[in-house]
Design goal:
This protein has five helices and three strands. It has 145 residues and is mainly alpha-helical. Helix 2 crosses helix 4 (80-93). It holds the Pfam family HTH_20.
Length: 145
């Protein structure tokens, strides 16, 4: 299947939490820790389905596979509507991309996905710092008048 261009948003919402890393070397525990650090485990998501959706997409993307919402729903044993809600949140967070009716992880590896998010955040903060310098300069001008 050929994928169309990704639906990337100019803005995104990402939650970063300080979470104690796991004591085990289990792949699932490590990925769960990343998901917790990225705010996927909310009180309302008791079954950790958002993280399960992300995990399935990461594993599929590492194999070069894109998945439809129906295929993901089948794999996590959830309704397609519930999966679409999680997918929309993951797209909004910048962690996954939508190509037509298929979804993929933003990058082919978890590490690269985190690097890309870091780059996005760095660009946002650089813009904010530039504006902050301009604001400070305007404040100084008003004080000097």
């Amino acid at each position: 299947m050929e994928l169309g261009p990704p639906q990337r948003r100019m803005s995104f919402r990402l939650v970063i939490r300080k979470v104690e890393p796991p004591y085990s070397d289990s792949l699932l525990d490590e990925l769960d820790w990343i998901c917790k650090s990225l705010g996927f485990y909310e009180e309302i998501d008791k079954d950790k389905t958002a993280a399960a959706v992300f995990r399935i997409l990461v594993m599929a993307s590492e194999r070069g596979e894109a998945l439809s919402s129906t295929a993901i729903a089948d794999r996590v044993n959830m309704s397609r509507g519930a999966v679409i809600n999680h997918l929309n949140n993951l797209v909004r967070s910048g962690l996954i991309e939508k190509h037509g009716r298929f979804y993929v992880a933003r990058s082919s590896s978890v590490y690269r996905t985190i690097e890309e998010l870091e780059d996005d955040i760095d660009r946002i903060f650089e813009r904010m710092k530039q504006r902050a310098r301009q604001i400070d300069a305007k404040f100084r001008q008003r004080i000097e008048q």
